[in-house]
Design a protein that fits this description.
The complex is a heterodimer of chains A (about 325) and B (about 350). Chain A is about 75% helix and about 5% strand. In chain A, the strands form two sheets. A two-stranded antiparallel sheet of chain A has the order 1-4. A two-stranded antiparallel sheet of chain A has the order 2-3. The two termini of chain A are about 35 Å apart. Chain A has one domain (about 10-20, about 35-310): ABC transporter involved in vitamin B12 uptake, BtuC (Orthogonal Bundle), CATH 1.10.3470. The relative contact order of chain A is 0.19. In chain A, a hairpin with a 5-residue loop joins strand 2 (about 155) and strand 3 (about 160-165). Chain A has about 325 residues and is mostly helical. In chain A, helix 2 packs parallel to helix 7. Chain A contains 14 helices and four strands. Chain B has helices at about 5-20, 40-60, 70-85, 95-120, 125-145, 155-160, 170-185, 190-200, 200-205, 210-240, 250-260, 270-290, 300-315, 315-330, 335-340; strands at about 30, 35, 150, 165, 170, 240. Chain B has two domains: about 45-280, no CATH class; about 300-340, no CATH class. In chain B, the strands form three sheets. Chain B has a two-stranded antiparallel ribbon. Chain B has about 350 residues and is mostly helical. Chain B has 15 helices and six strands. In chain B, strand 1 (about 30) and strand 2 form a beta hairpin. The chains are: A mainly alpha (about 325), B mainly alpha (about 350).
Chain lengths: ~325, ~350
């Protein structure tokens, strides 16, 4: 028997399967394990960002700064590498910076009770601005380690391959899955998103959880930035513009409630894959232009938000509360 | 309690004072080719689209909503108007330009209605509901222009964004009319009170006999229209439509202007004059950064700190933290005495 709460995630998976099968029938060469793996290769950074975003959204917040943090990470990495730093120091440093950046935003959100939307918006401006302060040009990376990682193909049984970035992304996914469902931090995050006041009254560590969630998102963004650096082999202030929207879209398509308290990481994984499939189909079609991606993602967003509404509204009372806004 | 315009006006005055000290010629206004020129005029002229979008955004935020799609609407209306004109045989004909303007504004109303329907009709959170159009909107704009940057050669259309009337840029008059209409509608009729009431408590307003949903939809309609006009000004100023970059970051600047103007994001109160000053502050900041020869990219960093400081000042818990620290430092025994009194 299917549980009502699992419905949205099954819809997401079914949609992904349908799109992939439809693509396979329509285009020759679409149905192969490598096309599937390419979805991971091309969207590894998006998956990592979306995982962090999932935690933030489940906790009832939102993080608009992720795209800018990615850009800042590529910028700092490429500048430091150019100055002759070793990747052994650069990568931990940018990850730490991401962690601190997210933590600072979380602290401001929690202690001064400012809406996460505005605080992370300021974070977005700040990170993007700092990129330009470092340099307004593209800085290419030709460090041996980075090019090696970028070009390494991990061959799977059957002759297909994935990149190292995919392995990182899957590792993050596994860790996040464990964190969400088998640790106190995960449970606290769900409780916090369900109702903050109740969480306080229950004696849950709200401050620690909230700041932790944003720290995790900052860390994921920085890690995605590192992966993005592998992918692009350059640092640029205009990298990853609009990535926050892609990440939020992936989370919503994955069935996570934007009001917080409900959602699954597995859904986010498929949300990312669906975006990848749309791009792949459009590139296979050839005649369709790239802007159709945005329109289709917008339509899917609409469809899934409507679906959420259908599954979450229980009666006239509930609807009134929903209209009243959850921030009271 | 200070007047609600105290902080915005102080901030703007400080910025202008800084410019005066840095370069006195900042305030000089010359007449060239029968038109006034100067940094102050530039601020008004280039700030016009932002002021318009921010005025619309104010009313939406007053209903406890938010409209993230304004940047996309700016791009779509610009694309729509330019496409209509470029298809015509005589680009300069007044009829064609009028039709383009009407089509573009009609489209912007439609998009506003869509947002309003999602928020009030279906009951989706405003951030999310408008996010849909924000994501899809740039795609739609590129669909209209077929992915190209359309350039026009239409003097009549260019007049909207770059023409001048009574020696002042025409766009300033558009802003004045929209601002005047908004103030009249909200402060001289009951609509303003309805909006604030809905922003405070939609359910209570409905029980008190206000059509909460209609008020919300009206706010989004107005916001869409304002964004549409801004789109016309922006595209006509450069005589081209760029689906990808027109109106980029406008939603953020507009929200920032509203917040600086003293309107709380929690809804229920709004200050249109504050918003206009907020938009002027942002534009002055941008101009100032150009004038003092710092690389313009640093604007974003400055903006980030302005957002943060303004929000911190607005935040109750931050003020309490500051005040209590100050008090305990000055009067350590105060708490004791009140307790025993």
């Amino acid at each position: 028997m299917l549980k009502r709460q699992h419905m949205p995630i099954f819809v997401t998976i079914a949609l992904f399967a349908f799109m992939f099968i439809a693509g396979s029938f329509r285009y020759t060469g679409f149905f192969s394990a490598q096309v599937l793996l390419n979805l991971f290769i091309d969207n590894a950074f998006l998956l990592i960002v979306a995982i962090g975003m999932t935690f933030v959204i489940i906790s009832g917040g939102i993080d608009l700064s992720v795209g800018s943090v990615i850009a800042l990470t590529t910028m700092i990495s490429s500048t430091l590498l150019q100055d002759g730093w070793s990747p052994v120091f650069v990568i931990p440093l940018v990850l730490l910076l991401g962690l601190l950046f997210g933590g600072a935003m979380g602290a401001i959100i929690h202690y001064f009770k400012i809406q996460p939307f505005i605080v992370t918006l300021a974070g977005m401006f700040l990170a993007r601005g700092l990129c330009y302060v470092i340099s307004t040009n593209t800085i290419t990376i030709n460090h041996a380690f980075y090019t090696a990682v970028a070009q390494t193909k991990v061959t799977l049984p059957g002759g297909n391959f994935v990149s190292i970035s995919v392995l990182i992304a899957l590792l993050v996914f596994a860790a996040a899955f464990y964190m969400a469902h088998y640790t106190r931090f995960g449970r606290n995050t769900y409780a916090l998103g369900g109702n903050e006041q109740s969480s306080v009254l229950m004696g849950l560590p709200v401050a620690r959880t909230k700041i932790g969630v944003y720290m995790f998102s900052g860390f994921c963004s920085a890690l995605a930035g590192v992966v993005f650096t592998f992918y692009m082999l350059s640092g640029y202030g205009l990298h990853a513009i609009g990535m926050e929207l892609d990440a939020i879209a992936a989370v919503v398509i994955g069935g996570t409630l934007l009001t917080g308290g409900f959602g699954y990481l597995a859904g986010t994984l498929f949300g990312v894959l669906i975006q990848g499939v749309i791009q792949t189909i459009i590139s296979f079609e050839g005649t369709l232009s790239s802007w159709w991606t945005r329109i289709v993602i917008g339509l899917l967003l609409f469809f899934f938000i409507l679906l959420q509404k259908l599954f979450s509204s229980r009666g006239p009372l509930q609807r009134n509360i929903a209209l009243d806004g959850k921030k009271d | 309690m200070k007047h609600h315009l105290f902080w915005p006006v102080t901030l703007l005055a400080l910025l202008l004072l800084f410019n005066l000290l840095y370069d006195p010629s900042f305030f000089s206004i010359k007449i060239r080719d029968g038109r006034l020129y100067g940094s102050l005029i530039d601020i008004l002229n280039f700030g016009a689209p932002l002021m318009l979008v921010a005025i619309g955004m104010t009313l939406v935020i007053a209903t406890k909503g938010i409209d993230l799609s304004v940047g996309s609407i700016v791009a779509i209306t610009g694309a729509m108007a330019c496409m209509t004109i470029s298809k015509g045989t005589d680009q300069n004909s007044l009829g064609l330009v009028a039709m383009a303007v009407i089509m573009a504004l009609g489209l912007s109303l439609l998009l506003g209605l869509w947002n309003g329907f999602l928020v009030a009709g279906i009951g989706i959170q405003p951030i999310i509901a408008t996010l849909i159009l924000m994501v899809a909107g740039r795609g739609i704009a590129q669909l209209i222009t077929n992915g190209q940057i359309i350039t026009l050669n239409s003097g009549n259309y260019k007049y909207i964004g770059a023409g001048d009337l009574f020696r002042l840029p025409f766009s300033i008059f558009i802003v004045a009319v929209v601002f005047g209409a908004a103030v009249l509608l909200t402060r001289r009729t009951a609509i303003g009170m309805f909006i604030e009431s809905v922003g405070n408590k939609p359910v209570a307003s409905r029980l008190a006999g206000i059509r909460a949903k209609s008020v919300m939809i009206a706010a989004y309609l107005f916001c869409g229209l304002c964004a549409g006009i801004a789109g016309l000004i922006l595209s006509s100023n450069v005589s081209s439509a760029d689906g990808n970059n027109a109106g980029l970051w406008y939603e953020l600047d507009a929200i920032l202007a509203v917040v600086i103007g003293g309107t709380s994001l929690n809804g229920g109160r709004f200050y249109l004059a504050g918003t206009v000053i907020g938009a002027l502050i942002i534009q002055t900041l941008t101009t100032t950064i150009y004038v003092i020869n710092v690389s313009p990219e640093i604007t974003l960093v400055v903006k980030a700190f302005v957002v943060l400081v303004v929000c911190l000042i607005q935040s109750e818990s931050f003020r309490q933290a500051i005040v209590s620290r100050w008090k305990t430092r000055r009067y350590p025994a105060e708490k004791e005495t009140t307790r025993h009194a």
